[in-house]
Structure formats: structure tokens, C-alpha cells
Amino acid sequence: MSVNVRKIVVAVEDIWHDGGPPLSEPVRKGYVACVIANPFAGRYEPDIQGFMDDLKPMGLECSKRLVAALGGDVGRIEAYGKGSLVGVNGEIEHGALWHVPGGYAMRELLGQALAIVPSSAKLGAMGTAIDIPIHHKDACYVRSHFDAITAFVADAPRPDELMFVLAMTTGGRPHARVGGLEASAISRWDGQR
């Protein structure tokens, strides 16, 4: 089955401070949203898993676009997340098709990326926003990198569309100070600590 892409949107934030002292270099945080036709909209299809393979090239393309928008250096990416927004003629399970193509694409591009990719999914009308959870790519217990980014595309998803989102950052929250495992103290390299 082919993937019918309508549009790809990339958004990046440069965060210089969050009410505290300005940083010497901003944290860059961004997302890429790919809006595609939902081939299963309007009906129940018992076997949808094969579509994940069709989505894999799109996952890699979206990952590359986001890394480029964040400066082009995969070594600077510290955290990630993903999500799906399903148009109202679809079902939440259609959003779950993004787990493998989105998550593994980021891991493949970033090289070392040991932590599970946090995810969110929901149904929504055109212009609905979705919060994409973010945490450290190598150890999900790095508390300074617990974050989110709100993604939306004004004219998506249409009722028969899917909007797949990837998110990455070059650092944690600008003024993280609530303790927990620090990124510099990752030692187990097990995706958790």
C-alpha cells in the first residue's frame, strides 16, 4: 500500500530562558508533522499491521528533516518523542501504526538511542493540537528532560487523514533543578538509567 502524503510541517523553538537567567546557547526543540491519507478511514479493517512497513521510509525522511531543522548534528540531539493525531473517520489503532516507523527511524538516525520513545495518540478534528511527550533518548529517568511540545497543523487532520509527529530537543528544560538522574550520570546504558 502506498503512502499518500499531503503535507509535512516542521516547527522549531529556540528557548533562551524560561523565566530564569538567559542561557549562553538556546535549547532547540522542534517537531515534524506528516499529514497523510488514512487508508482505513470509515471502515473497520482487521489486518492493518502491514501498513507499518509502508510508513518506515516516511519515518526516516521525517527524522532527517527534523534533525536538519535542529541544526543538522545528530550528536546534539538529547531527547525525543512521537505522537499520532487521527482524523475523526479513523480509529485510535490507526495512530498506533506510527510506533515502529516513527520510533525506530529516530533511533536509526541518531545511532545510540536506548530509551523507549514516549508517545501519545488521539482522535481529533482539523486544527486539533496534540502534546508530544519528550524524554532523554538514552535514559528515560533523566528528569531534566521530562518535557513536551504541542504540535498542530491548522488544516489537519481532515476526517480521512492521519497526522504523524516526531519531536526532538537539543537539551532538557532550560532551568531544570528538581533533582533526579543527571544526563552526565547515565551509567547503566539500559534505556532507563
Notes on the protein architecture:
The protein is of the alpha+beta class and 193 residues long. The protein has one domain: BB2672 (60s Ribosomal Protein L30, Chain: A, 2-Layer Sandwich), CATH 3.30.1330.110. It is 18% helix and 29% strand. It has 3 helices and 7 strands, in the order ββαβααββββ. It has helices at 51-69, 92-95, 99-110, and strands at 5-15, 27-37, 79-86, 119-123, 130-136, 147-151, 161-169. Strands 1, 2, 3, 4, 5, 6 and 7 form a 7-stranded mixed beta sheet that branches. The longest helix has 19 residues, at 51-69.
Keywords:
about 190 residues, alpha+beta, 60s Ribosomal Protein L30, Chain: A, seven-stranded mixed sheet, 3 helices, 7 strands, globular
Element layout with pairings:
Blueprint: E1 5-15, E2 27-37, H1 51-69, E3 79-86, H2 92-95, H3 99-110, E4 119-123, E5 130-136, E6 147-151, E7 161-169
Parallel strand pairs: 3-4
Antiparallel strand pairs: 1-2, 2-7, 3-5, 3-7, 5-6
Helix pairs in contact: 1-3
CATH secondary-structure class: Alpha Beta
Instruction: Give the number of helices.
Output: 3
Percent helix, as a range, is 10-25%
Shape: globular
How far apart the termini lie comes to: 39 Å
Q: What's the alpha carbon Rg, rounded to whole Å?
A: 17 Å
| Spans where pLDDT lies below 50 across 5 or more residues | none
Protein name: Amino acid synthesis family protein
InterPro entries: AA_synth_put (IPR009569), BB2672 (IPR035936)
Pfam families: AA_synth
Organism: Microbaculum marinum
